[in-house]
Amino acid sequence: MFLMQVLHSIELDEIEKLRVEMVQRIRLWMMICCCQVMLIAAVTDPNDLAVLNALKSGWENLPPDWKGSDPCGSNWEGINCTDSRVTTLDLSNNKEIKAILPQSIQNLKNLTTLILIGCSFRGPIPDSIGSLKQLVFLGLNNNSFTGPIPPSIGNLSNLSWLDLSDNQLSGPIPVSHPPAPGLDNLVKTKHLYVLSLIYHIRE
């Protein structure tokens, strides 16, 4: 009888150990799942997020859904992303933004489309815009940009469409003088709109 009690006690101990081990495994699995969900939810590249947050703090009249900490995951209006990187920034006709376009725009390094038409931007077009080497479409028309056209735009070798018309730009259209770039370097550009005039560079 005593032996049976001892064996029964051992069995209970083993069952309790198994139960504790199973609970620990379940908790670990739940923690892993939660971490995966958090990683999936926060899909915006941290560098792109920092740029957009800086823009949000300095610009007015932005779309009302520019909220939260994940522009790509939350589908902010005017923002398109590919593989966590912001590839499109389109805030066309948000007429009361009334801001400058900062040099930090260059840090959205994967941008292919930048459309800021009719947004009441003022001040110069930043020279750093020539660092956005992936740009295919650049529309800055119908604003109040002032000063010269940055020669650095000539570095945008993938650009197909450029519209700077209906601003308050001044000075000549920049032409390349090596090593300085100019708009004549835009060999892939099909449509070039500058100073309210239309130039079809490539038919």
What can you tell me about this protein's structure?
The chain is α/β, with parallel strands linked by helices and 203 residues long. It folds into two domains: 1-41; 46-199, Alpha-Beta Horseshoe (Leucine-rich repeat, LRR (right-handed beta-alpha superhelix)), CATH 3.80.10. Helices cover 28% and strands 17% of the residues. It is built from three helices and ten strands. It has helices at 2-41, 46-58, 71-74, and strands at 79-82, 85-90, 113-115, 122-124, 137-139, 144-147, 161-163, 168-169, 191-194, 197-199. A seven-stranded mixed β-sheet has the order 1-2-3-5-7-9-10, with no helix packed on it. A three-stranded parallel β-sheet has the order 4-6-8, with no helix packed on it. A hairpin with a 2-residue loop joins strand 1 (79-82) and strand 2 (85-90). The radius of gyration is 28 Å and the shape is elongated. The N and C termini lie far apart (101 Å).
What is the gist of this entry?
The protein has 203 residues and is α/β, with parallel strands linked by helices. The chain has helices spanning 2-41, 46-58, 71-74; strands spanning 79-82, 85-90, 113-115, 122-124, 137-139, 144-147, 161-163, 168-169, 191-194, 197-199. Strand 1 (79-82) and strand 2 (85-90) form a beta hairpin.
